[in-house]
Design brief:
The protein is of the alpha/beta class and 406 residues long. The protein has 2 domains: 9-152 and 165-183, Rossmann fold (3-Layer(aba) Sandwich); 204-397, Rossmann fold. 36% of the residues lie in helices and 18% in strands. It has a 7-stranded parallel β-sheet, with helices on both faces. It has a 5-stranded parallel β-sheet with strand order 2-1-3-4-5, sandwiched between helices. Strand 10 (279-285) and strand 11 (288-294) form a beta hairpin. Helix 1 (18-29) crosses helix 5 (119-134), helix 4 packs across helix 9 and helix 10 (306-317) packs parallel to helix 11.
Length: 406
Amino acid sequence: MPPPLGSRIKVLIIDDSAIVRKILSEAVAAEPDMEVVGTAPDPYVAREKILALRPDVLTLDIEMPRMDGLTFLKRLMHDTPIPTIIVSSLGQASCAATLEALRCGAVDVLAKPSGPYSVGDLRLSLAAMIRGAAGAHPRIVRDLAPRPLRSPSFASSSFTLSPAPSPALEPAIASYSVAPAHLLPPVPTLSFPSLSFPTDPRTVIAIGASTGGTVAIQEILLRLPADMPAIVISQHIPAGFSHAFSDRLNKICPMEVREAVDGDVLRRGLVLLAPGDHNLLLHRTGSGYTVQLQQGPQACYLRPSVDVMFVSVAHAAGSRSVGVLLTGMGADGAKGMLALKRAGAPTIAQDEASCVVYGMPREAVRLGAVSTIASLADIPGVLTRTLKPQASAASHLHRAAQETQP
C-alpha cells in the first residue's frame, strides 16, 4: 500500500557495497518527501529490517554475498510484494539478472553509480523512481520462490529465510545471479496465426511505457503475430539495459525485435526499441519510414522520451499510425498521444487495474487523448481489431484508384 498522504516515503537500501549504500542514502535523504529508514548489506539483514521497519520501497542490489538479490526478490514477491527498485551494474550477466528481476516483480531499474556516472543525475532519477514505486501495485507472483516460505506473509514475525550459508558455500550461491541458464526461461514452442488480412504498408504502431513497462511490453509482443505492421517502442530504461531487453524479447516473441540503429528502415514484422539515453524519431521517406536517434529532451529525467517519439510518428504517419501508452509514472506520452489523436490515429491506453503505476495513461485520459482504454491482456486484441478498419479503408482506396485508371 502507498504511504499515507503527507507522510514521508520509507526507503530501505540493500547493497553489499558501503560506498553505494552511502551514495544512495545521501540521495534519498536530500528529498523532503522520503527518508532512509535503514540499510542492509545482504538479504539476511534486510529480512530483519523489513520486519522491524516496514519500508514502503526497497532498493536492491543483484550481486551480493550469502544470497543474491534475484533469489531474495523471488522470495519477497512470492507472498507479500514490496515495491522494489533494482540498482544494478551494467555487466552482461547483471543486465540479464536485472531483466529477470523486472519479470519477477521489481518495478524499476537504476544503473549503479560508477565511472563518469553523475551522482547528481542519480539523485534525480532515484527520487523519481522512488515516488513512482511508492504508488506502484507490484504483482504477487506465486511461482517464483525456489521453495515455500514458512510464513504466508511478512506481517508475521515468524517469517524466515533459509539459514545463512557457511562461508564455504557463498561463492556457489552468489554465482546464481550470473548464470544465464538460471535467468532466461526456455523459449516456448508456440504457433502464431497471421493477421490474415492485408494492412496498409505505411501503418506503424508506436508504444510508450515506463515503470512496469518491460513486463507489459513483453506481454503484448508475445501475443502479436509475426506479420504485424512495424512497431516502434520507447521504454524508460537506462542506457546499457535496452540492448539486453531487446535481445531477450527477440528470443521469445514472434516478431523480430532489436534495438534501433540510426537510419533503420521500418518494415512489417519488425519491432525497434529506442536505445537507453536516446530519443527515437520517425521520418517519412517515400512510401516508408526511417528512424533517427538523437540525445534531445529528457522526460522523467530519462531518455527516450515517449512524447518526442509520439509527436514524430504523428507528423510522419498521421492516421496510418496507432498509439499505445502503457504503465508508468508521470505524464510522458500524454501530449504526444494527443498529437496522434489529432492527426487521426487511434490511441489506446492501458487501464488502471492492470498498470503497475497508472500515471502516464491517466494523464493522457485527462487530456482527452485516448480513443480506447483496455487492460493489458486485451490490448493485443484491440490492436488487431483497430488495424482491420485501416486495412479495409486502404483496400477501398486501392480499388477506387484502380477504377479511375483509364
